[in-house]
Amino acid sequence: MSHLSQEELVKQWESEQASLRQLMVEEDTEDWQRSPDFTGLERVGGVDLSFVKGDDVNACAQLVVLSYPDLELLYEDSQMVTLTAPYIAGFLAFRETPYLLEALQRLEKTQPNLLPQVVLVDGNGLFHYREFGLACHLGVLSGLPCVGVAKNLLQVQGVTKSQQHQLQIASLQKGGDSFPLTAASGKVLGKALRSSDSSTKPVYVSTGHRISLETALRLTHTCCRYRVPEPIRQADMRSREYLRVHFPAAADT
C-alpha cells in the first residue's frame, strides 16, 4: 500500500467499499431476530481495538463472546497487532477490519461452537459517509450479522451536533427511547439510543450486516447494563487491561 499516494489509496478504497456495499444486507436474516425476546440467540460478540498510549500503530485487537441474555463471558481473545494501513477519515475499516476478522476466524477454527451469532462493533455501520462503516465491512467479510454502536456522533450526510440534535437528546426520557438519524436525502441511517435510564448521553446504533435497524436497536438496548452495550464494554475493558499488563510504561493514567 505504501507505494500508493493517499489520493490513489482513497480511490482504491472507495472502489472496494462500493463493491462490498453491494453485498450488504440491511434486513433480518435469522429466526432469532424476528422473536420478541430473541429466542434462539445464545452468543453475542463484541470487538474493539485499543492502542498503546501515544502509539497509533500498535494495538490490542479484542474479541469477546458473551452468553445471551445473561451477558456472561464465554470466550475472549486478546492479540497484539501492528496496523499497516494509514488512518484516513471514512476508511477506518481498512485499518481495523483485518485484525478483527482474524480474531473471528481463529475462534471459528478452534471453537466453532462459540462463534457469535451477532457481533456488536465499536463503530458505525450504515451511518457513514458512503453508508459502509466498520460494522458493515466486518459483517460482509465475516458473513455474520453485525451492529454498529458508536459512542460519539459522526457528523455526516447532514446530521450534525445542532441545537435540534441536542433537543432531541434531551427528549429521550428513559432507557430504550430513541430518535432517527436522518440524512439530508431523507434516508434514516441509524438511531440515537438512550441505552439505560441512568445514562443521558446516547449511543448511535446503525445496521452493519444481516440485521434491520429496529432489531439492531432492540438488541443493543437489551445488551446494555450501562451506557455502552456489554459486549463492546467488555471488549474495551479487556483490551485496555491487556495493554496495562503488557505495556505498563504506556498505560493510561
From TrEMBL:
Its main location: cytoplasm. One of its GO terms (cellular component) is nucleolus. One of its GO terms (molecular function) is single-stranded RNA binding. It is found in: Cytoplasm, Stress granule; Nucleus, Nucleolus. Keywords: Cytoplasm, DNA-binding, Endonuclease, Hydrolase, Magnesium, Metal-binding, Nuclease, Nucleus, RNA-binding. One of its GO terms (biological process) is DNA repair. Its cofactor is Mg(2+). Belongs to the endonuclease V family. PANTHER family: ENDONUCLEASE V. Monomer. Interacts with PABPC1; the interaction is RNA-dependent and stimulates ENDOV activity. This is Endonuclease V.
